[in-house]
Here is the input.
Amino acid sequence: MVMLKQNFDFISKRKIALVGSGLLLLISAASLIVNGLKLGIDFTGGTLIEVSYGEIVELESIRSALEAHEFSNATVQNFGTAKDVLIRIKPREGVNHSQASVQVLKAINSSSEQIADLRRVEFVGPQVGDELAEDGGLALLYSMFGILIYVAWRFEYKFALGSVAALIHDVVITLGFFSVFGLEFDLTVLAAILAVIGYSLNDTIVVYDRIRENFRNLRKGTPQDILNNSLNQTLSRTLMTSLTTILVLIALALLGGQIIHNFAIALLVGVLTGTYSSIFIASPVVLALGVRKEDLMLPEKEGLDIDTRP
Amino acid sequence: MQNTFPLWKNLFIVMVLGLGLLYALPNIYGDDPSVQISSTRTTQLTDDQLNLIKETLTAQGIVAKAIEFNDDQILVRLESLDDQIKAADYLKSALGRGFTTALNLAPATPSWLRAIAAEPMYLGLDLRGGVHFLLEVDMDAAVKQAEERYVGDIRGALRAEKIRYASIAKVNDFVQVKLKSEADAANAKAVLGTEFRNLKLSDGKELFVIEARISLDEQEQIKKFALAQNMTTLRNRVNELGVAEPIVQQQGDARIVVQLPGIQDTTRAKEILGATASLEFRMVDVKHDAQRAAKGKQPIGTRLYRERNGQPILLKRQIIVTGDQIVDASSGLDQNNAAAVYITLDGIGAKKMGRTTRDNIGKPMAVVYIENKVETRISNGKKVRHKEKIEEVINVATIQGVFSKRFQITGLDSTTEARNLALLLRAGALAAPIEIVEERTVGPSLGQDNIDQGTLSVFVGFVLVLVFMAAYYKVFGLVANVALAFNLIIIIALLSMIQATLTLPGIAGIVLTVGMAVDANVLIFERIREELRNGNSPQASIYAGYEKAFGTIFDANITTLLVALVLFGFGTGPIKGFAVTLSLGIMTSMFTAIMGTRMMINLIYGKQRVKRLSL
Here is the structure.
């Protein structure tokens, strides 16, 4: 039986962790402010066309064909293999967009010997793009809010704040990762971010659950000891679950195809930070907010008139 | 101490697993290439068509796997894709235009499974290939059109009551009626008040002027009607395109989703869905010079048009027949091999056309082709809805003889244009212009790739987790693995039963569930190990492990479910698919990972005196 070392002093390392997290958050925030996110057409509006050729094709010839047909603002790049080409057209003033994909296909087919096999077209009109971005932002807000209420109800408000702090930490770092590495942020990545919230929370709740149990059962020990004990008791579970999840995500990232590649990457980054934050962010925040044994005692045991607020 | 489930609990778990297996089963049978024949608005499928189909196939030597006839469609299942295309061609010409023939991939579910309503999962467009359109109806235009109709109606009503008016015109958002005296104004107000209850009447700033506004309720009605009418028209058009299992659905107040699975020619689909083409027939004004009218003032009672070559032409204002009065249209070639559209008019239209042609033999008549285009453009950083009405004279012909109900028109550029125009005239006009605001097309090759890659990643992820769990938790790990396999089967069964759309992100959701589903078991097993370390007996540890872990599992999963629900509420299309599989996966994993493994552990260790657990 593999046994993990079960008495690691996590809490005393919280200052180091804080510096590390702070640094990562700072880099993320700076990059998000300076570089922003490379938003996909889901949010910006525009047209995306993926075509595939039987043989390797010169991107330059496609570019010149598009320029000849007044698509000079098109970006052309390989997608996955040298035979697959992705063409993006940004929304431009005074152009009919819903027909752009048809015109692009005509343009590249008329200038080339090879006939392109149309793999995918995505067109998002400007009015829809804004809505999708707005809905996405709202979804993030509402899920955070819902979590805040649920955790405050099931545990205590300090725990709610701790879990949301961990979630914000995870989301900002995942977004920062996408910003720093210039990965495209589209609707599926947004879904991944929300899934990260779900996952990270799952992890945090498991730790909190143990903290609550230990506070109720252990008569002795400082809050710091109890938190440390709880983290150590749940450590092997935290690592096991993260490992299995990371295994399947690696499978998804490598084998799932280009379309959900970024989705898998977002989840991978999110699961890694989520695992870390449930140990080094969620619990220290609860400690910093001054959690006490009395916060978690069952009301009927403590009598009726106990004020659970600090 | 013993760990046993009561018999009913074991039976219940086995029953759920059995049902899961049964309803997941249809997914392994694959598809039959088939041809789907359905009736259109004017026709009804009967046994005659069924016999005709059988005869045609036998005559062409095509063997059908099965022919199924259920109320409004006939499904012909074939052995190969080649047969499918051949059969579709032959059947199309044999049945004629009254019926729609579409290629389809029909699930090859055996009849005994279909009898218990077991069906395979419904694949989204990103997996089966096809087009997804989001169309926005121009509601302002719908209201505007209604105001214009009221101008005509008010004119008619005042004339009928012999009230003389100075002018009736649409101004901004109301209809302005100018009268000549106070008495006329009072009479007019009384007439309009009784005849048009939906109009709000008020006095204008000037004397003897009435302003008529469409009430807000009526505007809502107009918008609702425009949306409903447009959906009907779009359904007709989609049927004309010959797509199997199309979806035309309302989304929000002013939008329509159209999904066309498996369609190849997206260009044509786009042209047909968004088109507003219609026809008008007018007499040519021969008294005035069109060139001069183009430079200066138009003579009264005429309108200036241009022909396709840019030449100006003057037509009479009065319309003989409009596109609404066309009941049928088909395309073909005329005696000179030029593209032609054969038109059939309804009774009123035919009467009018007959009267006009009788009175005007030897005079020229023009066919006007009208198209409304709407699109949103970005101008100075703002979104501006750009509207364009194209009116072209496509044909001017001298009336040679009297005709009324059936006739042909020429002057179109190509046979494709003739074909599209005939289709649009048949399917009916849109009540208000529409604009494509979102399109997602997935080619068939990419769809198959997505299925293959998705399946592969589920499989590989699954195997990795199996190996890992077995290595780390031994017998308990194997038990968790069996539960995980059943979890997958139950997810697939549920997806098949509720016919939720499976998308690529949906598959990703399943992959993620596989990774996270073992979490419940990890929690339980770690808890059991802890209990063992604390010196408890194996049986007591199993008992306590499951008991103590339950609360944690429940809390952790509820919060994840909360997030999945938010995703479902806010997400569109593919994202919804992810939310559905994720939430299903969370719920099924609670069942298999807690109840399922407990049953197996009980059966293995429950009744004996155990010294060591293989954990």
